[in-house]
């Protein structure tokens, strides 16, 4: 009887039944490289108004290597009572909703569950506030902390007008292209302190609540988006990405959503795709991944060895701006030299000292990985110092693991490595 029920239960409940252990870690991904990564939203009430308050909402991306790309973030919540938004600066709601009950001034939004989006760069100054208007793009905290925050101001009406009567909004949802986030309920925290421009006085919010959103592997589409191929100067075999790394190329016309580069109608086909959509339209390959990372060992001397890293975009519908790679290899250390990319060791914890992050540079125009085609790749060189301790197995020159924009790339099996 018990067993006939099992197939209907979620893996989480099954896990609970069988091991009677806590299950929460199995749904919210534990990211070894970024265990505390989160996006924190602070809602600071700055002043009371006759029927509500004015708040500044700030979003900080505290994730080391996950960022938010175009078309940017969407933030939604549900009002606890009958609140309305009179006005906003630095962002806007996507819908006004039904404001027909209002006779005089018409609110900016009357929706019970407003969805807020950032304004675009170039918004008139009188609609901006500090840190706004980046088209919803948030950098990762390692790549560019100065661009890792967003902010907007909201004037809320029909709300409480003291810190005892204000009701905290519910059900915050943060949406971004690609990764999915889960947000914990808003918590009232110690009011945020602000320092005045002359740095001689602290002011503070009248009331602050905070929402912490974390990346959820459980909600994020599980299909890999990238794969790794390998080669080496001492063996002219190229070890390709494993077949079906990200999907299988199919002969049937419905499921085979891939494009042959030689197709005469390619241009019109491609222009029909939505810009930067997240259902990738990829070049037809045996691995069907939108991103391929190629690791080529170029030379090997007594003291050094040298690798060329090439990232190829095989997706016709997407420019990856602010892309990043995290690579795990025991030889990474502060003596490693990288040209073409920015290099930073990720050494947050004693147990992880073998992982580095690489990303492109604006000055080299390789910070955007352009859509599939002749310009759809970037490359850089890595010069490692030799460390005898790690040169034991035959795969020593190849990475243990690679992540593109935080997603694990499918690697060839070690048995296939060139030697
Ligand atoms: C969110 O990230 C910040 C910065 O790394 C950290 O101080 C805080 O503890 C994190 N919050 C949670 C709930 O993980
Ligand atoms: C919370 O928001 C999500 C997504 O917007 C929605 O699916 C869900 O039903 C909401 N929950 C409640 C209790 O309103
Ligand atoms: C509300 O304000 C009172 C005094 O002004 C303060 O003591 C209290 O801690 C505040 N409560 C919150 C939730 O901020
Ligand atoms: C696809 O075509 C090849 C030969 O053209 C055939 O061997 C294979 O079985 C086909 N696969 C599917 C899924 O139809
Ligand atoms: C990618 O960028 C190029 C050059 O800026 C542009 O021409 C192209 O339309 C963009 N593609 C997408 C899918 O946004
Ligand atoms: C890296 O960590 C490993 C295991 O924690 C340790 O044995 C090794 O000495 C560390 N290496 C460096 C360069 O700190
Ligand atoms: C090159 O590597 C491949 C894959 O591991 C192997 O099968 C082949 O024998 C190697 N070739 C030479 C000349 O060593």
From TrEMBL:
Signal peptide: 1-29
Cellular component terms (Gene Ontology): plasma membrane; side of membrane
Highest taxon of the lineage: Eukaryota
Keywords: Glycoprotein, GPI-anchor, Lipoprotein, Membrane, Signal
Cell compartments where the protein resides: Cell membrane
Membrane topology of the entry: Lipid-anchor; GPI-anchor
GO BP terms: cellulose microfibril organization; plant-type cell wall cellulose biosynthetic process
Pfam families: COB_C (PF25079), COBRA (PF04833)
COBRA C-terminal domain residues: 225-418
PANTHER family: COBRA-LIKE PROTEIN, PROTEIN COBRA
Membership in a protein family: Belongs to the COBRA family.
Name of the protein in question: COBRA-like protein
Organism: Vigna unguiculata (Cowpea)
């Amino acid at each position: 009887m018990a067993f006939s029920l099992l197939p209907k239960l979620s893996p989480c409940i099954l896990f609970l039944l069988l091991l009677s252990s806590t299950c929460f870690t199995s749904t919210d991904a534990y990211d070894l490289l970024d265990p505390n990564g989160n996006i924190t939203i602070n809602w600071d009430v700055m002043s009371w108004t006759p029927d509500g308050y004015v708040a500044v909402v700030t979003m900080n991306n505290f994730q080391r290597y996950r960022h938010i790309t175009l078309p940017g973030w969407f933030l939604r919540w549900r009002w606890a009572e009958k609140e309305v938004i009179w006005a906003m600066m630095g962002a806007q709601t996507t819908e006004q909703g039904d404001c027909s009950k209002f006779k005089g001034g018409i609110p900016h939004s009357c929706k019970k569950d407003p969805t807020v989006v950032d304004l675009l760069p170039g918004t008139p100054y009188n609609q901006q506030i500090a840190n706004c208007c980046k088209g919803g793009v948030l950098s990762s905290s390692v790549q560019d902390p100065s661009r890792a925050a967003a902010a907007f101001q909201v004037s809320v009406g029909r709300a409480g007008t003291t810190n005892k009567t204000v009701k905290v909004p519910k059900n915050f949802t943060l949406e971004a292209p690609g990764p999915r986030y889960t947000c914990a309920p808003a918590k009232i925290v110690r009011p945020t302190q602000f320092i005045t421009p002359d740095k001689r006085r602290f002011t503070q919010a009248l009331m602050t609540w905070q929402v912490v959103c974390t990346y959820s592997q459980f909600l994020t589409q599980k299909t890999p988006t990238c794969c790794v191929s390998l080669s080496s100067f001492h063996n002219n075999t190229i070890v390709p990405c494993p077949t079906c790394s990200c999907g299988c190329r199919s002969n049937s016309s419905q499921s085979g959503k891939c494009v042959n580069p030689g197709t005469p109608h390619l241009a019109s086909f491609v222009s029909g795709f939505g810009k930067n959509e997240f259902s990738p339209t990829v070049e037809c390959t045996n691995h069907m991944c939108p991103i391929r990372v190629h690791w080529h060992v170029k030379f090997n001397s007594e003291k050094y060895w040298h690798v060329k890293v090439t990232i190829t975009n095989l997706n016709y519908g997407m420019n990856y701006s602010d892309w990043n790679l995290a690579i795990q290899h025991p030889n990474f250390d502060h003596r490693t030299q990288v040209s073409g990319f920015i290099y930073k060791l990720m050494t947050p914890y004693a147990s992880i000292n073998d992982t580095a992050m690489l990303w492109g540079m604006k000055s080299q125009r390789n910070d955007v990985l352009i859509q599939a085609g002749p310009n759809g790749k970037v490359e850089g060189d890595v010069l490692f110092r030799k460390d005898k301790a790690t040169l034991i197995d035959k795969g020593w020159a190849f990475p243990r693991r690679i992540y593109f924009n935080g997603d694990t790339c499918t690697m060839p099996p070690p048995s296939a490595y060139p030697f």
